[in-house]
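> call design_seq(struct)
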């Protein structure tokens, strides 16, 4: 039986004018928000939690598209009174690499034909824009310019070399198995106790889910991945 949710009750619990302003500014630069406000609001509240509880560490996102999520994180930091954290943005800035057999979507559809069609047309699958555009977008937040760190290239090549020393927020949004697995191996150990992990495509791409489940099982990491929407999972690292 399909669950039916009355649309007129949606978001009535989100009564925060500051968040509404930030979300409207950042929405054009994010694909995540196309599914609804829940992922943005969860990120906003995660930043509030980290700042208010003095959980130290930088922020990092792998797979930034046009920069919308880290724009929101920067604006939230400013709003809650913290402009000291570095925000690391890891991306190829050239679109997604070729998907592997593990990278089916949630209902078993293979994204490889889509990737091939993009290649034939001279286009880039998952491409948000060049580094210069993303830099311009995030700097509109007026968060200190020297706090942003842009790391172009595949994470399999840039990590762990460009990894921050410690992280309070780790957001993974590269969609695919290989990159997600590498991000978890190299960056999750740098997430401080009390830090927040967000896996954007856990519920959408089977590869992202497989990489996450395997890492948690192999390492015994203690974290509850809470469902934010059909795709996003968020957890707080225990230790």
């Amino acid at each position: 039986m399909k669950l039916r949710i009355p649309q007129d009750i949606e978001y009535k619990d989100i009564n925060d004018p500051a968040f509404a302003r930030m979300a409207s500014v950042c929405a054009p630069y994010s694909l995540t928000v196309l599914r609804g406000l829940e992922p943005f609001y969860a990120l906003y509240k995660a930043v509030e939690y980290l700042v208010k509880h003095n959980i130290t560490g930088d922020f990092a996102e792998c797979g930034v598209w046009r920069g919308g999520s880290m724009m929101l994180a920067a604006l939230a930091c400013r709003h809650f009174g913290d402009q000291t954290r570095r925000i690391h943005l890891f991306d190829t800035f050239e679109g997604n690499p070729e998907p592997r057999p593990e990278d089916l979507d949630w209902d078993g559809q293979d994204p490889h034909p889509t990737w091939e069609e993009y290649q034939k047309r001279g286009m880039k699958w998952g491409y948000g824009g060049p580094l210069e555009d993303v830099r311009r977008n995030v700097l509109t937040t007026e968060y200190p310019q020297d706090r942003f760190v842009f790391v172009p290239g595949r994470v399999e090549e840039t990590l762990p070399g460009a990894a921050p020393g410690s992280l309070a927020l780790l957001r993974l949004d590269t969609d695919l198995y290989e990159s997600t697995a590498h991000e978890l191996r190299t960056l999750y150990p740098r997430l401080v106790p009390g830090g927040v992990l967000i896996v954007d495509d856990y519920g959408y791409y089977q590869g992202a889910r497989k990489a996450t489940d395997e890492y948690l099982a192999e390492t015994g990491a203690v974290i509850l991945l809470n469902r934010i929407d059909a795709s996003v999972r968020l957890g707080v690292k225990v230790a």
